[in-house]
Amino acid sequence: MKNRHDDGSAGDANYGAIGVDYTVYRKPDPHIEGFIAEALVDARSVLNVGAGAGSYEPVNRNVTAVEPSASMRAQRPAHLPVAIDAVAQSLPFADRSFDASMATFTVHQWPDLKAGLAEMRRVTSGPVLILTCDPARLENSWLAEYAPEMIAVEARRYPPISEIVEGLGGEADVVSVQIPLDCTDGFSEAYYGRPERLLEPGARRANSAWSFVDPAVEPLFVKRLSGDLDDGTWDAKYGFLRAQPHFDGSLRLIVGKA
Questions:
Q1: What is the pLDDT of residues 112-149, one digit of tens each?
Q2: Domain 15-256 belongs to what topology?
Q3: Residue 159 to residues 103, 105, 111: CA-CA distances in angstroms?
Q4: Predicted TM-score of the model (pTM)
Q5: Which of 56, 60, 63, 151 is the most exposed place for a label (fewest CB within 10 A)?
């Protein structure tokens, strides 16, 4: 299929290369999970598109997972259903096959957002949930100072919230999801008060944006952040974040109405 990587990835990121140990750093966070569970209401059958290794899939509902990357499908735990090899813009299901559908941290990688959202709406009789980041809010993170190249990549990749709402038919609720200090889902903002974690290569690799920046950027980021942590520069400016229980960053849950 066009746009596929060697491992079957159909989006812009090659998870055959960057998906190693992904589940070590990207574990579903209970606080974020609560927002998803509430939005799913009483749906019994749920489609998870771009399901990856299964983060945020509800275990108490009948879930069908779709994931084009072989390396990500292989990392799904045994208690979750085997994922179907398919892509968002061409879902192999009949109209209104599911009570609800969801897509978490994936729409920014789709080659055709409009087609993917239309397909989710077509096969879903109830709410369509999209967990994503608002590109207009990414500058609020300290990473915008230390890794502006990575933030610029993220801002280009994440679609505007208005574009997602429009793709879902124009009727949607947009919920701001505050990020907890001990967030277990290691997207970049999850470490807003734990900067040392981003010195770990695996933590950066689990955020696909790093794979799009010039290779020279990452070692410079590590050198600067390490130095500023060692001499207290980071804490002098951002240390208050270490005790801040939540961060109102870019994380948004969009719930498209039937």
A1: 999 999 999 999 999 999 999 999 999 999 999 999 99
A2: Rossmann fold (3.40.50)
A3: 14, 12, 11
A4: 0.88
A5: 60
